[in-house]
Design a protein that fits this description.
- This protein has about 260 residues and is mainly α.
- Helices cover about 75% and strands about 0% of the residues.
- The longest helix has about 35 residues.
- It is globular.
């Protein structure tokens, strides 16, 4: 009898997660379809909904009490939403700077979320594996520098934050590591387009496809880390996932 409420709560959580994932999937599919069809206005509207739909997914997959990592990723998604929407209120280089500023804050939040797991990163454990990131970053700066002008300094700072996030994300699990890599690719495509004049066919589709993949993988990875109890540095997650005796309930001690 005592397990019935628990099962009911779990069923409700699964139901909420299923609805959130379905809504997010519809938003993603609609946005990518708009990119393929060249429906710019509709693409803008669906882009505004991407981060909120991912917030809903993360809230559903990682129920309270949420640990530090999940809370900071929620902050990162909030700044990402501002980076997706605020530039539409400006034009030209101002819009680009507004986007860079908000995504800079998003990357800072993601870095804070993933930094405690840096010892588990396979890249930092074997520094030679960092070579591709270093080479790509230097090549990107070299390609963008001639056309960047006064934007070069903020672009370099943002690039350093982006690379740091991508590397640190590998310390959580494979999904977050892939998410960090996709984020690097997406933002590299934007930089090459705006600053070096190098545009791929269907540029918007490739930028948004890699961006969406990045954010989805970060959310999925954080949720998986919570389920697996892999967050050594996420005390709230450990307590939430621990059995009753580990939470200071009858028959057990206090949480560590």
């Amino acid at each position: 009898m005592s397990q019935a409420p628990t099962r009911t709560t779990q069923d409700r959580q699964r139901g909420r997660a299923g609805v959130a994932v379905l809504v997010c999937g519809v938003v993603v599919a609609a946005h990518l379809a708009c990119q393929v069809l060249g429906a710019e206005k509709a693409a803008d509207v669906t882009q505004w909904l991407l981060a909120p739909s991912l917030v809903a997914v993360l809230l559903a997959l990682v129920p309270a009490p949420r640990g530090r990592r999940a809370r900071l990723v929620l902050v990162g998604l909030g700044f990402s939403w501002l980076g997706d929407t605020a530039p539409d209120l400006a034009e030209g280089s101002t819009a680009f700077l507004v986007m860079v500023a908000f995504f800079m804050l998003a990357q800072a939040a993601y870095i804070a979320a993933f930094a405690p797991d840096w010892r588990r990163s396979p890249l930092l454990g074997r520094p030679w594996l960092l070579t591709p990131y270093v080479v790509l970053f230097v090549s990107l700066v070299a390609a963008c520098a001639p056309g960047a002008g006064a934007l070069l300094a903020p672009v370099v700072v943002y690039g350093l934050l982006l690379v740091s996030m991508a590397v640190l994300s590998t310390g959580v699990n494979r999904a977050t590591g892939l998410g960090g890599a996709f984020f690097f690719v997406s933002d590299a495509l934007i930089a090459l387009d705006h600053l070096a004049g190098l545009e791929l066919p269907r540029q918007g589709l490739w930028v948004m496809a890699t961006y969406i993949a990045a954010q989805v993988l970060l959310v999925v990875g954080v949720a998986a880390a919570r389920r697996e109890g892999s967050g050594q540095h996420d005390p709230a997650a450990r307590v939430a996932d621990a059995p009753p005796t580990a939470r200071g309930l009858p028959g057990g001690g206090q949480p560590a």
